Inverse folding.
């Protein structure tokens, strides 16, 4: 279907540009290093959301019917800032100020409506609760909009995540998505090594969420997932199977890239590896 | 709400928690976008009537305080006027980091009410007492902290805090048959302490349930020829610096609080007072940094030197040594 | 006004119920207004009307209009 082809092309372009911008920011961070791996694993998810679901751009930043995005795994902000750049909130020059003194773009997002950031995240386990508050508000105001909360699998160690997970179905929040970036790693090792979070699908499902599991880098599957979600009457959990560091040979599934320095030579190598699908 | 002698007596009889319930019931009439959030404490916070009258304005998050604050922040970000409430230790410490991030850092406008703070639930043990809340929350920038002296002041504090443009914490101390400090209407403003009694020898800064005890103590101290100034410091943050400036003309400053002497009202006063040259000595009356065995409210007030009789003894001892 | 009328009027006014909702068989929790908060309001109003001060046990035992009459007689209010 040509419509679908166009949409997928749009998402892939978004992802391509995002990876380029992530490289710019990681390079700019220099010796401070950056949370490279965990940002790359969510690029397709964020690209799909921002190009097809979240009606949010510089021209209509506060429209009541805009879908909301909460990056609960705030350390993956490189992907978030890249997306905000693509939709016009942050310009390319500002991306280079990443983690510099007095910058708007710190290593975790800081609330700043002028550049499209609604919440300060980074302390794991808090975003889903905020999402619930907004979802309840939307219901009360009869708004037809959704809230997309992107979380980490390591983040699911936090008890506060499960408080929120228990609450959402109790309030029939069918306008709320919890998207878990299941890249199987957390800060100092794999989930299996640190705190085994296997059976995420069963866990979320048993808490009352409509739970699905898909390839978090397949933009067609992601797009169809979000399009089909409209008819489901429960809060939705998506266990997105992803690869930490996705996009570059040196970083894929290499947990050293949880937080590391991108040297000039690696930057050059990475640039040569980006492909448009 | 009609502030008259009869109602003041009723609010005193029912205590600060049930008075909270009456206050929000009244607020709901004029505030379309009021939302009250709790953690399975509707009946403990006098909210049963509110829950039944305004179900659309009431959300119970179950026993999940971290979620409570996040949800409150989400609602506040959508321009709802949000009040959260549960028992003080859980309201302030179980979700302390959520308070820091959502209310302090993001400045989401939420008014938190900690019920049964201090020693009133002493017979349940110190898991249900709270002698740390002010100390813990004072170090979060941007959070106003108010500790009302009696049931009428509880109503005034809630009404004032919900109208602020910033987040706040209201600490409710005392129980049913809550002693009356104010038996008629008066002006209340967050940040402005209230001079309850003038005096020139010592200044007693008190807050919450300690205000009544301090006033009673002052009567006895007067009979001992000590002229006491008694000031209700209902707002602990931001502290009324002007009142402290004025107090330096007296010979001794006394702080009285149903809280650890570390971190609460006394500490807030001394932080400022220590910047003033030649300021008088300060006597800290409060809980001396330990968890005692439990007991009923009166027993514990007495044990920790917070009854009027014990305040008198402590002040006399210290005044003699000046 | 007789003590009985005074008693009945205080009930109706302090609980803020309609005269049509009142009957002498009324008990605690029969109407939503007579909940724990309504109860304290009622007690306070009766104390004022009859110039008495209830003991705690009597406040707890005061479970109905009829029971209240018995309790008030303890405080020398005759019906």
């Amino acid at each position: 279907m040509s419509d679908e082809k166009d949409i997928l092309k749009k998402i892939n372009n978004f992802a391509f540009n995002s990876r380029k911008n992530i490289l710019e920011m990681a390079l700019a961070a220099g010796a401070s290093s950056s949370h490279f791996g965990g940002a790359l694993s969510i690029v397709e998810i964020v690209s799909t959301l921002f190009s097809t679901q979240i009606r949010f751009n510089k021209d209509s930043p506060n429209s009541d019917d805009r879908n909301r995005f909460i990056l609960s795994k705030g350390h993956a902000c490189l992907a978030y800032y890249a997306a905000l750049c693509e939709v016009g909130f942050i310009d390319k020059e500002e991306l280079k100020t990443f983690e510099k003194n007095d910058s708007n773009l710190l290593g975790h997002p800081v609330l700043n409506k002028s550049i499209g950031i609604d919440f300060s995240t980074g302390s794991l386990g808090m975003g889903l609760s905020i999402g619930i508050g907004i979802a309840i508000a939307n219901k009360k105001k009869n708004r037809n909009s959704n809230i997309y909360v992107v979380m980490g699998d390591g983040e699911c160690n936090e008890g506060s995540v499960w408080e929120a997970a228990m609450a959402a179905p109790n309030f029939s929040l069918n306008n709320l998505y919890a998207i878990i970036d299941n890249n199987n790693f957390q800060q100092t090792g794999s989930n299996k090594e640190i705190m085994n979070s296997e059976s995420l699908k069963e866990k979320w499902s048993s808490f009352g969420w409509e739970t699905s599991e898909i390839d978090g880098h397949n933009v067609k599957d992601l797009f169809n997932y979000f399009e089909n979600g409209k008819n489901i009457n429960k809060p939705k959990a998506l266990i997105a199977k992803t690869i930490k560091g996705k996009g570059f040979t040196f970083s894929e599934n290499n947990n050293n890239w949880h937080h590391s320095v991108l040297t000039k030579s690696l930057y050059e190598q990475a640039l040569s590896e980006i492909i448009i699908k | 709400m009609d502030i008259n002698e009869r109602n003041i007596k009723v609010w005193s009889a029912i205590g600060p928690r049930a008075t909270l319930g009456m206050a929000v019931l009244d607020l709901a009439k004029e505030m379309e976008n009021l939302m009250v959030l709790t953690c399975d404490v509707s009946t403990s916070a006098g909210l049963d009537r509110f829950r039944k009258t305004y179900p659309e304005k009431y959300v119970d998050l179950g026993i999940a305080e971290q979620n409570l604050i996040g949800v409150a922040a989400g609602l506040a970000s959508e321009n709802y006027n949000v009040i959260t409430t549960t028992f003080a230790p859980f309201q302030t410490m179980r979700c302390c980091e959520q308070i820091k991030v959502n209310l302090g850092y993001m400045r989401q406008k939420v008014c938190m009410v900690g019920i049964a703070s201090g020693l009133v639930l002493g017979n349940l043990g110190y898991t249900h007492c709270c002698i740390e809340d002010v100390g813990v929350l004072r170090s979060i920038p941007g959070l106003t902290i108010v500790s009302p002296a009696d049931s009428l002041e509880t109503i005034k504090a809630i009404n004032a805090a919900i109208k602020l443009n910033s987040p706040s914490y209201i600490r409710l101390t005392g129980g049913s048959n809550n002693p009356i400090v104010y038996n008629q209407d008066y002006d209340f403003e967050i940040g402005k302490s209230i001079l309850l009694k003038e005096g020139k020898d010592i200044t007693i800064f008190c807050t919450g349930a300690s205000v009544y005890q301090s006033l009673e103590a002052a009567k006895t101290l007067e009979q001992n020829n000590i002229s006491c100034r008694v000031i209700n410091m209902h707002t602990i943050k931001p502290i009324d610096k002007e009142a402290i400036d004025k107090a330096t003309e007296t010979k001794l400053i006394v702080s009285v609080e149903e809280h650890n002497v570390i971190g609460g009202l006394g500490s807030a006063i001394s932080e400022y007072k220590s910047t003033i040259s030649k300021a008088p000595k300060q006597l800290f009356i409060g809980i001396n940094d330990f968890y005692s065995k439990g007991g009923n409210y009166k027993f514990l007030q007495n044990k920790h030197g917070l009854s009027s009789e014990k305040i008198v003894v402590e002040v006399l001892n210290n005044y003699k040594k000046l | 006004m007789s003590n009985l009328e005074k008693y009945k009027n205080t009930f109706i006014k302090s609980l803020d119920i309609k005269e049509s909702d009142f009957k002498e068989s009324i008990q605690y929790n029969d109407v939503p207004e007579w909940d724990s908060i309504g109860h304290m309001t009622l007690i306070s109003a009766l104390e004022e009307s009859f110039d008495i001060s209830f003991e705690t046990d009597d406040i707890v035992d005061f479970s109905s209009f009829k029971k209240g009459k018995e309790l008030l007689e303890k405080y020398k209010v005759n019906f």
Observations:
- The mean pLDDT of chain B is 96.
- The domain at 194-320 of chain B is CATH 3.40.50.920 (Rossmann fold).
- Chain B touches chain C at residues 6, 9-10, 13-14, 18, 21-22, 46, 48-49, 52 (CB under 8 Å).
